[in-house]
Amino acid sequence: MRANKACPVVLRHSTELEILAFRHPLAGLQLVKGTVEAGESTATAAVRELAEEAGVQAGESGFLGLWHSGFCGQVWAFHECRVPAPLPESWSHFTADDGGHRFEFFWQPLASLPSEQWHPLFQGALGLLRQRLLGEGAEA
């Protein structure tokens, strides 16, 4: 099955490897993710979604794999995205998605298991990324 969702992965190294995440005002902690539009590659969709949801301009630098989420037929394509300059510790961005929301961005240590504040779907996605990027088991 082809991927129908794209997930841009922005990483940084501080004291440990961290991944860009955000607080959705209605649905808990999440990663940036969105629908792949008709005729669009998953890499292009990942870069577009990062700009739309986070206000971050980036380039796709590497395919990290597919994930069959088990949720509503969603197959996610993960793409590492590189940003040209360091991003702040935290910021907010208003997106027009779903009628408009203000997302609060932060850095999640990738090795840390996600708390119950994380939407369950994104807990699974983080498990896969921990496995791919850190070599750790996906099961919490």
TrEMBL record:
Its cofactor is Mg(2+). It comes from Pseudomonas protegens. Keywords: Hydrolase. InterPro entries: NUDIX_hydrolase-like_dom_sf, NUDIX_hydrolase_CS, NUDIX_hydrolase_dom. Pfam families: NUDIX. It comes from the Bacteria. Gene3D superfamilies: Nucleoside Triphosphate Pyrophosphohydrolase (3.90.79.10). The keyword Hydrolase applies. Residues 1-130 form the Nudix hydrolase domain. This is NUDIX domain-containing protein. Coiled coil: none annotated. The keyword Calcium does not apply.
